[in-house]
Amino acid sequence: MPLKILGTGNRKVNLWEDTPESDQAAENLVEKQKTVRPSNTLQLKLVLSGRTMTIFAPAK
Hints:
The protein is mainly β. It has a domain at about 1-30. It has strands at about 10-20, 30-35, 50-60.
């Protein structure tokens, strides 16, 4: 997922994504936090019919 849409400046991202077991147990998610910039690309790990939740906020 290209992050150019975020505009200028760094962003803090909270990300919840699937684990390898999520196809059998949908409640299995892993949470990650990182700082990204618009020139980055965010790679998401999803199982078939998977999901993710991503929250962006300005980095402090």
